[in-house]
Design goal:
It contains eight helices and eleven strands. The chain has about 325 residues and is of the alpha+beta class. It has two domains: about 110 residues, Immunoglobulins (Immunoglobulin-like), CATH 2.60.40; about 120 residues. The strands form three sheets. Strands 1, 3, 5, 6 and 7 form a five-stranded antiparallel β-sheet that branches. A hairpin with a 6-residue loop joins strand 9 and strand 10. Helix 3 runs antiparallel to helix 4, helix 3 runs antiparallel to helix 7 and helix 5 runs antiparallel to helix 6.
Length: about 325
């Protein structure tokens, strides 16, 4: 009984191998090329196929930058599987675009494709047919004389080449126009002055306090010369407007001096005021750089002007000069 059992096991084993081998025979790999000859540097289409029954698993080759045989792979399609035919066979294929810069015969060997069956755990291999490609060199006519290098051929300008330049020029022009328009609008925009509030202390006292505060701030000593002279000018303009019937905040230096010369202020005080306002204009608009002595002297000039002018003519008693006084 033991010998009979061994016999049946052996028969079963060989039967399984035979069936697996029979199924393996149904798998066929095939390779082909678009031509068996090519010129150096040209491109060649290489196709790899495998035919197999349904239920088989295919392990497709993974390519690098070259194919066995040495030809370079320029591009490759994704492996695709065709639907099963009437016999239940399926086809899997892939196309490779190849090139080479070597001449002579190039042998592309058979490609091994591994596959397994759902019924058999073993792995089988199907090999495609090899291909022989002949690569020719570029033929040179050595008998004829060398020809000069051809000149640059001018191509007609297309609309697609012109449009980016047109849009770029119009865009740049629009940007420049917008910048100029914004600049002019900002330049011509009237300056809104803050309304001058009626002081709770006498104007001359407020001006003197502000001038002393400015002295202690040490603006010009810290490099803020323009801010220093702007404050000087603002303090004395507000003082003149609140003390006398002169709209000094909105006037130029020349207009202020023309207006205050009829108020009875002595000439020395007016000269100090004029010198300070003119120097302040030079610093604010011409970027002048006064000396340290001039910076201190301007502040003292304004202190002297306030002290010598406020007692001359109170604001509520001021009157417009008559024509005889102007003359």
């Amino acid at each position: 009984m033991k010998a009979l059992k061994v016999f049946f096991l052996g028969v079963s084993f060989y039967l399984i191998l035979f069936l697996g081998f029979a199924q393996a025979q149904q798998v066929e790999a095939l390779s082909r090329s678009s031509s068996d000859t090519m010129q150096i540097g040209d491109q060649l289409l290489y196709e790899l196929f495998i035919t197999f029954p349904q239920g088989f698993a295919i392990e497709w080759p993974v390519w690098t930058d070259t194919i066995p045989g040495g030809m370079e792979i320029l591009s490759s399609s994704a492996p695709e599987t065709m639907p099963a035919d009437k016999k239940g066979n399926m086809i899997m294929r892939q196309q490779l675009l190849l090139t080479t810069f070597d001449t002579g015969y190039i042998n592309i060997p058979g490609i091994n494709i591994r596959f397994t069956s759902a019924n058999i755990a073993d792995t089988f291999v199907a090999q495609s047919n090899p291909l022989l490609i002949r690569v020719f060199d570029v033929e040179l006519d050595t008998a004829s004389a060398f020809k000069p290098i051809k000149g640059i051929e001018k191509m007609p300008v297309t609309l697609a080449e012109v449009l980016p330049w047109v849009f770029g020029i119009f865009g740049l022009a629009a940007l420049l126009f917008a910048l100029v328009w914004l600049y002019m609008r900002h330049r011509n925009k009237p300056v809104s002055l803050q309304p001058i509030l009626k002081p709770t202390v006498p104007p001359h006292q407020l001006a003197l306090e502000q001038l002393e505060e400015l002295r202690h701030e040490k603006l010009w000593q810290n490099g803020k010369v323009k801010a220093y002279y702007t404050r000087l000018s603002d303090i004395v303009r507000v003082y003149i407007e609140t003390q006398f019937p002169v709209n000094a905040v909105e006037m130029t230096t020349y207009e202020i001096m023309q207006a205050v010369r009829f108020l009875g202020i002595n000439a020395e005080a007016l000269n100090k005021l004029s010198a300070t306002l003119e120097l302040a204009d030079l610093v604010k608009f011409a970027k002048a750089q006064p000396t340290a002595l001039e910076n201190d002297l301007c502040l003292q000039h304004l202190i002297d002007f306030v002290k010598e002018s406020y007692i001359v003519l109170p604001k509520n008693e001021a009157e417009e000069p008559t024509k005889e006084e102007v003359q």
